[in-house]
Each structure stands twice: as C-alpha cells, then as structure tokens.
Write a structure and sequence with these properties.
Elements lengths: L41 H15 L3 H14 L4 H13 L3 H13 L5 H15 L3 H14 L4 H13 L3 H14 L4 H8 L10 H11 L5 H17 L3 H19 L8 H16 L14 E7 L5 H9 L4 E3 L5 H8 L4 H6 L2 H18 L5 E5 L7 H7 L4 E6 L2 H9 L13 H21 L4 E5 H6 L1 H12 L41 H6 L4 H9 L7
Parallel strand pairs: 1-3, 1-4, 2-3, 4-5
Pfam families: Sulfotransfer_3, TPR_16, TPR_2
InterPro entries: P-loop_NTPase, TPR-like_helical_dom_sf, TPR_2, TPR_rpt, TPST-like
Protein name: TPR/sulfotransferase domain protein
Length: 537
C-alpha cells in the first residue's frame, strides 16, 4: 500500500484551491499499480496491462471501460476494483464509484482505511452527504487508529460543518500521530487567532520552518499559516514577509507546472469572449424555465461570493450547493474556446442544460432554487446564458486592494497562476473587470452586481435587493445566515459563521507600505493611484 497522498482542497485558507471545487481534496485518491502474479493467465494479464496503461495515461473513460471488461471476466481482483472506483470518482460518477469500492472491500483489499477515506470523499464532494462522509472516516480510523489522513479529513469535515471543537480534537489526534506535518499544524493554526507575537502556535510554526526539513510545498503551507497569525495580532510587516515567502515557496513547489501569468492573454481572452457572444445576445436556446432554478454567483476569488451565497442560502426556498465545477467541465467539453462554445448546436446546449439540472436534482432532491458559487464562472456567463437564458447571475465585487491582499494571503491552486504576487493579482482584477464590462454590455440589466462593502454597511437593504432580483420574498433569517449549520467548503468557512463586521474593509492599508515598496507595475500602480478605501478604525 503506498503512503497516503495528502493533496489539497478548496476549503481552508492555508491550502491551494483546487480548480475542479473545484474540489480535489486532502482525501487520498491514488490508484494502485497493476501487479503481475505468477498464476495470472495471459488473457487476464493482457486486460490488466491495457487497463493500467490507459489509467496511467489519464484516459479516464477508456480506462473505465477497460477495467470493467477485466473485472467482468476476472472479478476476484480487489486492487482493480479499487482502481475502477478511483477512475469513476474522477469521472464524477459517485454512486458507481461507491459500488466499485464496495467490491474492493468484499474481495478483501488490503488497507480498508484507504477505501473508507475515498468513500468519504465521494459522499462529501460529489453527493453532498456529510453525515455519510463522517461515518466512513470513523470506519477508517477504526480500521487503523494510526491513520493520520483520516483524522485530518475528519477535522476538515468538522470545519466545513462549523464544528470548531470537534475539528480541533481530530486535528490534535492527527498531529499526535504526525507532529512534523506542516499541513496538520497549519490546520490547527487556522482554527484560531493570535493575540500577540508570544502565541504558542506562532512559536510552533517558526520552529517547524526553522527545522529545515520541510519540502517546498509544506514550507509554503507553514508560511501561509504563520502569515495569518501575524496578521491576526497586528504584526503586519511580519505577515507581509510570511505571505511573500509562502507564495515564493508555492511557486517553487509547483516547478514547471505553472506558466507565468500574462495580463495580455487574459485581456485578449476577455475581448475574444465578448466578440464571440455578442451576436447571441437575443438567442433563446437551452432551458428557459429550469427546475430547480440555478443561481450563479461569480467574480474574483475573495470578493464576498461565499458571504452572498450564505445569505441567500439562509432563505427557506434556497439550497446552497457551493463551488460546483460543472460549468467549467461543460465549457471544456464544448471545445474550451469562446468561439466553439458560442457555435455549439442548440441541441447540444439543451442536452448539457438538462444534464446540469439532473446533477442538481441528484445532489439536492426537491430543491427549488440552488446556488452555484464558482468564482471563475465569470468567464462562462455566455455559456450560462445559452444554457439558461433567464439565469439569475450575481457578480460579487470588492474594493480591489482589499481583494488583492485577501487573495495574496490565500493558498490558491496552481492553476490560478496569478495568485503568487500582488502585481499579478492586480492584473487579474483588471481582467475580471474587463470581462464583466463586456457581459454587462451584451446582457444589460441581467447581471446583479453586489458590493461586499455595501452588504457590510447596509445589510438589510442589500439583502432585500438581492432577494428581489431572485424573485424571492424577504426573510429575516437571511440576516442571521451565520447561525446556519450547513457545510461551507471555502476559505471563508469561519468568516461566514460570524455576524457581519467591517474589520476587513480597508485591510489593505496595513500592507500599503509593502505594496508601495514593490517595483513599479502598471496594474498595481493603477490600483494604488485610484482605489483608496478608508483605513480601518
């Protein structure tokens, strides 16, 4: 059994956000390698070799078919059932993946804790069934009480559900098993704030960093956590240095897997997208009266999208679904370029719209209004409007320098290649605004802009405005969203469980000296010259 592969997941601010949720996870998904057995007959080995090769090449649909053919003829192969489960999960076929993992267990696969961990991931991320996920994780630790990965994921699940004490207990167990893990220690650090530089958690993170034993990725995780603690106790110069070190380390850890960010490329993408869809502004393909009614919340990361979703989700008629990656997947399947998506046949768009709604109904049976909060969907508004011409779309907006600092202190997924420097984040903010200018010209009056600062300063007025846009009556519960108990899977997991406050407005001013010390950069200089929100009290 290979060691657990602790990857990353959309969720907490000390980890890179996975683009597919959007969520990959701390969960272990790694397949087993094919093994040759002296008693294996030639036909079995041929099928096994083919399936293993297709899996290794990333040809998921073909690999699934190959494993199904293998297991149809030779069902007593527990590792192959495991691999089939892993592949089905990659394909988003959660129920089938669970069945494959069940077969692996029934065939006596070694390391049952691995199976339970992966089943928990499916229940949590694909099927929105956190209680079942929790049960699987408890089975994992029962099978192997020294399995730190299960405790780590159990803590993560408790965080999603707002259960701070339970999360700490799980992380403490994981830390006791693996005290040298930067990920586990950072998770513990993320549960609280520091009141001074003498905070014990600051000392622990400093010691871990100074030990010189961490790989670049883990070193970056520790620096992000340390930066947040410095920020929480007002040591902003030290926080800036930690965030700079964290982002530099994360870039090193990514190696050649991250292309340099280019503002020109994003601006070109925005302009090409606008041109591709301008002729379709009056088109009425797709589904005009969807059931359930999706609400798309999008914009820059850390612009208040989770806050808006939680406010809306507190309404009795709304179900928050979090960051779904479905629109991104459909966009890629349609060719992955604005021109190809705009030119896709109406029949194809209709099929994808129906498939999207079927997925929502599977996740949330009986729901009438479901939110899909994926920030990056701001690129795909044209596709959304083709699928659902009457779609409700909310664009969250925040003072850009506050937005910049919030992104800079967050461990984004490597696919978000703008997130490593303030200069590139400033550029991305310009690109997102350019794209939204195009969409508002193409679809005037159909996209509601919601400013984070307005929600904080005049909450009831903004909540009523949002609900009016959605055609929903006002409910006082929307102003008490922080009392909701549903899962939250973003970096704002603890912020949105607090009552509204203005501590994050003007936060960038704490980092102004650092920002102005950076080499001149057109995009950042433009923000520093124009955007000057007030300094926090």
């Amino acid at each position: 059994m290979p060691p657990a592969n602790l990857g990353v997941r959309t969720g907490k601010g000390n980890l890179r956000i996975c683009p597919n949720s959007t969520h990959c996870a701390l969960w272990r998904y790694s397949p087993f390698e094919a093994k040759r057995h002296p008693m294996t007959d030639a036909r079995q080995q041929e099928l096994l070799t083919t399936a293993s090769r297709l899996r290794a090449e990333g040809r998921v649909p073909e690999a699934i078919t190959a494993y199904q053919a293998l297991l149809s003829a030779y069902p007593a192969l527990p590792d192959s059932w495991y691999n089939l489960g892993w592949l089905l999960r990659q394909a988003g076929r959660g129920q089938e993946a669970l069945a494959a993992y069940d077969e692996a267990l029934s065939q006596g696969v070694k390391g049952a804790e691995e199976i339970h961990l992966n089943r928990a991931a499916i229940f949590s991320d694909l099927l929105a069934r956190p209680d079942d996920a929790k049960a699987e994780l408890l089975k994992a630790v029962a099978a192997n009480p020294s399995y730190a990965a299960a405790y780590l994921n159990l803590g993560n699940l408790h965080e999603d559900l707002g259960e701070r004490a339970e999360a700490k207990a799980a992380y403490d167990k994981a830390h006791a098993i693996n005290p040298g893990s930067a990920v586990i220690l950072s998770r513990l650090a993320g549960l609280g704030k520091a009141t001074s530089l003498d905070d014990p958690m600051i000392a622990k993170l400093r010691a871990l960093i100074a030990g010189g034993t961490l790989f670049p990725a883990d070193l970056a995780v520790a620096h992000y956590a340390l930066g947040r603690l410095y920020d929480s106790c007002g040591a902003y110069d030290a926080a800036a240095q930690s965030f700079a070190a964290a982002n530099a380390g994360a870039r090193i850890a990514a190696g050649g897997g991250v292309a340099p960010y280019e503002l020109k490329a994003d601006l070109y993408r925005a302009d090409q997208t606008g041109r591709a869809f301008v002729s379709l502004r009056e088109a009425k393909s797709g589904i005009t009266e969807p059931d359930p009614q999706p609400v798309f919340i999008l914009g820059m990361f850390r612009s208040g999208s989770t806050l808006v979703e939680q406010i809306i989700g507190a309404h009795s008629k709304v179900t928050p679904a979090g960051e779904l990656g479905l629109i991104q997947t459909i966009y890629r399947n349609l060719g992955g370029t604005p021109a190809r998506v705009a030119a896709a046949p109406e029949s194809t768009i209709q099929q994808y719209a129906e498939a999207y709604l079927k997925h929502l109904r599977t996740l949330h049976p009986g729901a009438s209004v479901v939110t899909d909060k994926h920030p990056e969907n701001f690129w795909q508004i044209g596709l959304i409007r083709r699928m659902f011409p009457n779609a409700r779309i909310i664009n969250t907006v925040r003072e850009p320098l506050d937005n910049l600092i919030s992104v800079w202190g967050l461990h984004l997924d490597n696919s978000q290649n703008y997130g490593f420097t303030p200069q590139d984040i400033a550029s991305r903010i310009h690109a997102e605004r350019r794209m939204m200018i195009h969409w508002n010209r193409i679809y005037p009056g159909t996209i509601l802009s919601v400013k984070y600062e307005d929600v904080i300063r005049q909450p009831e007025q903004e909540v009523r405005r949002v609900l009016d846009f959605l055609g929903l009556p006002f409910e006082p519960a929307c102003l008490e969203f922080h009392k909701a108990s549903g899962p939250v899977k973003t970096a704002s997991v603890w912020q949105v469980r607090e009552a509204l406050h203005d501590r994050s407005i003007g936060r960038w001013k704490h980092y102004e000296t650092y920002l102005r010390s950076l080499p001149s950069h057109a995009a950042l200089d433009a923000l520093l010259a124009v955007e000057q929100p007030g300094k926090p009290a």
